Predict the 3D structure of the following.
Amino acid sequence: MSTPSPARDRVLETATRLFYAEGIHAVGVDRIVTEAGVTRATFYRHFPSKEELVRSYVQAWDQEVRDEVAAVVPGLGADQALELFLARLGEEMCRPGFRGCPFINAAAEYPDQDNPVARAIASHRTWLRETFALLLGELGVPEPYQRAALLMLLRDGAMVGAALGEPAAVAGQLAVAVRELVRR
């Protein structure tokens, strides 16, 4: 891993924008280098390969989510945290340019589970499922790990459904389904 620098940050920010909007395999290194305003040598000094950039992209998005949760959730009760999750996810799904979950999108392009990109995606999903299980456990929901797996399925389906159309309706349906999952 290279040391942080403004050039590295520009490359990662550019890649994040392009990978999310257009797909990882659809965007080449030359385009990233041009739009980030760096040389190929600078690119490769920070990212020895495009795959390393993709792994860094997934890990950066993961860290952003974890930081957001760490900044907000500890001050809330589990019920408030779950409601905030639903609200935040609904906002994300309804924002302009929404193209679904960046982790699901990346997983579709990196199906080999032994690939470092796929492992970074799996790490995020494991953390998210465990976070859900902890919240559900705090709410006294029986079988919190099994219910967390169901919550992941609901979340994944909502992310895909919202990307395909009618995100506000999908966000509302997700909220109803999650509340029902918690209640039962």
User: Anything to note?
Assistant: The radius of gyration is 18 Å. The CA atoms of residues 113 and 119 lie 6 Å apart.
